[in-house]
From TrEMBL:
UniProt name for this protein: SSD domain-containing protein
GO cellular component assignments: membrane
Keyword Nuclease appears in the UniProt entry: no
Broad class of where this protein is predominantly found: membrane
Top-level lineage group: Eukaryota
TM segment ranges: 58-79, 268-289, 295-316, 328-350, 370-390, 402-426
Lineage: Eukaryota, Sar, Stramenopiles, Ochrophyta, Dictyochophyceae
Record's compositionally biased regions (Basic and acidic residues): 479-493
SUPFAM superfamilies assigned: Multidrug efflux transporter AcrB transmembrane domain (SSF82866)
């Protein structure tokens, strides 16, 4: 680090430029991290659990099962979660009670027409997103299941002309006795919602051309197109301009897994970057507080950023990982590792001034002598402890081991080469960059009065007193002399005893 060529700090500058270039190279790779397109593999490819899952997907499920099933529902306006004491951290318990749309009445001819029209339009509604190819529609060809069409065929009559009681009676009979012609289920109970003898909601389903496990960027445009379709249904003439319009305000679309997992993926990405946005400013505040120098803190923060970017770029470009659960969690944890070494080195660089070192090169030497060995020891122990997880079977622990070891390596390089190199070449000297904390009111403390020792012990040489300098000894002796002058006089032990005094007095003398 200290090698020079014609007064140019060649080694330090070379190390700084090399790590700076590598950090910039890793920025686009780190930013390219995205949620995985498939479920995370929790076991190695040759593990029996992985093989069982792969075989079950081939032999136990139809190909259509891998596509998203979209359910379009009329008549449910929301969910009342307060009554059920819903806990978002336990989402499968006490989910709440459905809130039915009191304005929706399927016996209304306009509602029947709107429902049938939506069933037909789903098969033809355009979608140019990549997830809709090759059909270029929101639904796979002939994949919709619409009970109203089969019900009207079964009734052999125009159900639009029936009154409400007859329509409800016949539809309940159809629901309980008939099954879909497609053979996808045994009855219509899930699509025709009958509660207490009343039809509360009605649904139809279709298969979207996108798989459940497609990437976030592939699924999101399809979801947005489905929202457009729902808005299109709500604007039907049957729902807006008819003489007795249907209340279509509660129409919605849902899936059992795809959109829930999409929001989870978005939450992982959002939480990861939100964590970075929070951690970096907090780290900078900690660095300012611990070092008391904004120049050193800026150098340390840049080092921390490059450490995090380096680790994320490494797992993206070299390991080929996605932004999964373990990567999202570890991406926040690594900031703690990356700050640790720079804080200690920066603190010792600033502390060197109290030891009489004011020049940046002297401070560098002091920080290197006092802290580098500690940093190396900490790096070795942490890396070795993380390396033990390389023997685990679950890929989660393998990834954690890789991230910990990689973080330690990058922290070691950027703290000792990049950060210390910056301090050695352009680091602050003297009072440069110092934050005057002592001028703040809450920072000031009253100095304690100097305590005068009760007993002063003179050294054998007679020139000093233990623990005190010569000038301080004089002050102490002067104060001791003043104290002795105030004491009452006592008879001298060398006085001559007068004649006639008792023998007892002589003994006391």
């Amino acid at each position: 680090m200290k090698a020079k060529f014609r007064d140019v700090k060649v080694v330090s500058i070379t190390g700084i430029l090399a790590l700076l270039a590598y950090g910039i190279f890793n920025i686009p790779h780190a930013m390219s991290l995205a949620p995985p397109e498939a479920p995370e593999e929790w076991f190695p490819k040759d593990h029996m659990f992985t093989k069982v899952r792969a075989l079950s997907e081939v032999f136990m499920f139809a190909p259509e099962a891998s596509y998203i099933t979209v359910t379009v529902t009329f008549g449910i306006s929301g969910i009342n979660r307060k009554k059920a004491n819903f806990n978002k951290f336990v989402p499968n318990s006490n989910r709440g009670d459905a809130i039915f749309d009191e304005g929706f009445d399927l016996s209304n001819p306009m509602c029947q027409k709107a429902f049938v029209r939506a069933c037909n339009d789903a098969n033809a509604y355009s979608c140019n997103a990549d997830g809709c190819k090759p059909f270029n529609t929101i639904a796979r060809t002939n994949s919709s299941i619409c009970f109203m069409e089969e019900f009207r065929s079964w009734a052999e009559n125009d159900t639009y002309t029936w009154d409400s009681s007859l329509f409800t009676e016949k539809l309940i009979e159809f629901r309980n006795t008939e099954s879909p012609q497609s053979g996808t289920s045994e009855n219509w109970e899930d699509l025709v919602g009958v509660i207490d003898g009343e039809i509360q909601y009605a649904s139809f389903t279709f298969k979207a051309p996108i798989g459940n496990l497609e990437s976030l960027e592939t699924k999101r445009p399809v979801l947005e197109r489905l929202y457009r379709f729902i808005d299109y249904v709500k604007d039907y003439p049957e729902c807006t301009t008819a003489s007795n319009p249907c209340d279509c305000g509660s129409v919605m679309q849902t899936t059992s897994f795809a959109w829930t997992w999409l929001r989870t993926e978005e939450g992982l990405v959002y939480g990861f970057y939100q964590g970075l946005l929070i951690c970096f400013p907090v780290s900078f505040i900690v660095l300012l507080w611990s070092t008391g120098n904004y120049v050193v803190s800026i150098f340390a923060l840049v080092s921390v950023i490059f450490i995090v970017v380096g680790v994320l770029g490494f797992i993206a470009s070299v390991m080929g990982w996605d932004l999964g659960v373990s990567e999202s969690v570890a991406g926040i944890i690594i900031i703690g590792f990356s700050v640790d070494y720079t804080v200690h080195l920066g603190h010792m660089y600033i502390h060197a001034e109290q030891e009489g070192y004011h020049d940046k090169e002297e401070r560098f030497d002091y920080a290197a002598r006092t802290m580098v060995s500690t940093v190396i020891a900490g790096a070795i122990t942490t890396a070795v402890s993380g390396a033990f997880m390389f023997s685990c079977q679950m890929t989660f622990f393998l990834k954690m081991a890789t991230l910990i070891v990689a973080t330690i390596i990058f922290s070691y390089l950027y703290s000792l080469v990049f950060f210390m190199g910056l301090l050695y070449t352009i680091g602050p000297s003297g009072q440069t960059g110092k934050i005057p904390f002592e001028k703040l009111k809450f920072w000031k403390t009253q100095a304690a009065p100097k305590k005068i020792p009760d007993v002063v012990h003179k050294s054998e040489s007679g020139n000093s007193v233990h623990g005190l300098h010569t000038d301080e000894v004089d002050d102490v002796r002067a104060q001791e002399s003043d104290a002795l002058r105030t004491l009452p006089e006592e008879p001298s032990h060398h006085q001559i005893v007068g004649v006639g005094e008792s023998e007892d007095q002589n003994k006391l003398q």
